[in-house]
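New to this. Explain these tokens.
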Amino acid sequence: MHISAQVLKVIITIARCGSFAAAAEELHKVPTALSYTVHKLESELELKLFERLGKQLELTEAGHYFIKKGQMILSELDELQFATQRIASGVETRLNITLNNIISLRPLYTLLAESERHFPHTEIHIAIDVHDGVWDALLDKRADIAIGAPNQVALPGEICCLEMATVEWLFAIAPDHPLTALTRPLRADDLRRYPAICIQDTSVKLEPKVAWQLRGQKAIVAPDYPAKIAMHLNGLGIGFLPSHLCQHFIDDGRLVRLMVEESKQPTPLFLAWQQRSPRPCYSWWLQQLKLPEVQQGFYTTLC
């Protein structure tokens, strides 16, 4: 016998009612029809779902398992129908968002909670990219929305962008680093002797870039900004840091800001997105990410 949703509902009702007569009354069927359904299913499965105690029925151990799994399957079938109907009406199954590694995830936590309430059937996938890897993810359609894409690049017509803010860079190193003994602005020859702490560009199709490294200078490649900052704090190398990430280390003396002859220029950051027909979750996220109070939250600590 094929175990259909209807058969599951019949067996679950019989188990709940405890007799064919009571279940037949609820299902508007005759008791013999329900008895036949149970007998045929038990024969096909070669096991007993119910013990007959006169006119009463009691589940066997196998019957308890069957009912438990059957209820789960019916629930999944109901969810399948509901979710499919919502998707057919335009609700997305997945939204991909990438962030520049120099901005904080903190504003996303509130947005994720709200998104789950509004769009429970849409999976939100969040990635972190470095340098032009943010643009690369968008252009290669690995991301639907990019937050903090640096330095506007040449964009095809299907990509839209909006400037968010500009990041200032500070040359900040450990207070016991040898370079702190120099009282003048630092020249390239001064800096080249010490490793540049870098984070590798995540671009796949665009030409990868190096944020800052002098010709002939050794690099230490860090996996992310928390690691890069920790390396600066431990005097392992030198380089520029976003002001919003390092200023409090400078204020409490754990890092020292030095002047260099060739400073790293400020970096404008953009909110960018794939231009497409309106979709509920996608449109909602874009609307939230354009809010000034949300954008301001990206320029805090990284956690």
